[in-house]
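Consider the tokenized backbone below.
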């Protein structure tokens, strides 16, 4: 096809001609072209990014949000997700999700949604990979204990701590601390840290909302999977829940009689599919009137994505059930209690003897309150590292650096 023919068939005729006239289009031109071709008008276009705190020249072939994604992927905090529990500790075996596999499942669901809605997949991926890097060891139990211990210095929130990690604690560059992420990536995580404020008035970017929705779809489904696999729940018990019952009905309609051995995997897949399908059809309807509008217009208009009312109610019912039947299961409570006690003991020991903190955290004591520094050190630990440190606290001398 000649350039003239391509121009004629191009939905945005000027662009192909622009490139033809300029044999070496700049990275900015290429990015602009790609985004205009692939993204919806209301997606967050990287060409509209507010940039980084420390200005950097554009990359030859990676756009700002894919650079953010790579920086998060290569961070120490991201790698430690493999050693942090999601709901179940290592004492429950190795099948179940860790914080890392949860994160990858969220990323997968979020990218699928973003692609269908023609949102910015690179930004979505960066946000999804980052969304849980602030979690302390031992999940919500660790968070509760740290929040108590750090009460006098403003408490602890894993969402806020993720921001501290990417702006202060990660050391990747000579001239500044942190990862120097784009303003939109940081703002997305900040929205997670201030959920109540983000629920009213100006809406967060659609990409931020998609990651939040994908997070809850992923954990509802994989917690069902893990709990059944570990014998904490049976499919019979779960079938009291309307969403699960509907999923089972659809599976039986499609497959007939399903052997028990394969039912769990089919059920989890069906649960994800039904929730994503419902969400997408709602989103398409919500976004239809905004074709041609820019992302800032939708934020100003307070456009919020979500499930249908019926699906939202069914999901609420499932989450209430999981809260009681899984998260408060009698097998989990003593494990969590013991982990919480270890974190508290470690915290109080370090509070009495801050000289036992690793060097780089002792350095932070000059500018940050002691209890916050101790909390940051503990929150960055994997479950196993936390156990090892707790076992060492009766020994003398500084703890090894990390
Ligand atoms: Mg999560």
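A designed sequence for it:
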């Amino acid at each position: 096809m000649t350039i003239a023919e391509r121009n004629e068939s191009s939905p945005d005729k000027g662009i192909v001609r622009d490139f033809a006239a300029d044999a070496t289009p700049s990275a900015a031109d290429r990015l602009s072209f790609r985004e205009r071709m692939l993204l919806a008008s209301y997606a967050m276009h990287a060409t509209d990014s507010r940039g980084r705190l420390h200005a950097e020249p554009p990359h030859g072939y990676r756009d700002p949000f894919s650079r953010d994604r790579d920086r998060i992927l290569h961070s120490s905090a991201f790698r430690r997700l493999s050693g942090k529990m999601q709901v179940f500790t290592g004492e429950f075996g190795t099948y179940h999700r860790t914080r890392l596999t949860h994160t990858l499942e969220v990323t997968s669901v979020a990218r699928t949604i973003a692609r269908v809605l023609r949102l910015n997949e690179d930004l979505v991926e960066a946000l999804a990979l980052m969304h849980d890097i602030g979690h302390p060891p031992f999940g919500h139990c660790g968070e509760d204990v740290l929040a108590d211990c750090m009460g006098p210095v403003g408490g602890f929130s894993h969402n806020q701590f993720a921001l501290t990690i990417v702006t202060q604690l990660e050391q990747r560059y000579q001239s500044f601390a942190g990862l120097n992420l784009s303003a939109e990536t940081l703002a997305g995580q900040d929205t997670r840290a201030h959920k109540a404020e983000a629920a009213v008035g100006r809406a967060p970017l659609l990409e931020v909302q998609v990651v939040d929705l994908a997070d809850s779809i992923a954990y509802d489904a994989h917690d069902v999977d893990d709990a059944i696999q570990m014998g904490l729940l049976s499919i019979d018990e779960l079938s009291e829940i309307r969403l699960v019952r509907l999923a089972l009905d659809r599976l039986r309609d499609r497959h007939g009689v399903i052997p028990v051995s394969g039912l769990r995997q089919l059920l989890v897949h069906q649960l994800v599919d039904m929730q994503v399908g419902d969400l997408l059809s709602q989103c398409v309807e919500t976004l239809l009137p905004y074709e041609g509008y820019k992302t800032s217009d939708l934020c100003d208009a307070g456009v919020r994505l979500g499930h249908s009312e019926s699906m939202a109610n069914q999901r609420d019912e499932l989450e209430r059930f999981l809260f009681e039947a899984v998260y408060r299961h009698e097998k989990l409570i003593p494990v969590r209690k013991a982990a919480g006690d270890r974190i508290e003991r470690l915290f109080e020991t370090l509070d009495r003897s801050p000289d036992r903190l690793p060097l780089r955290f002792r350095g932070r004591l000059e500018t940050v309150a002691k209890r916050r520094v101790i909390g940051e050190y503990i929150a960055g630990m994997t479950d196993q590292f936390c156990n090892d440190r707790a076992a060492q606290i009766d020994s003398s001398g500084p703890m090894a650096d990390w």
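Residues 11-22 have pLDDT under 50 and may be disordered.
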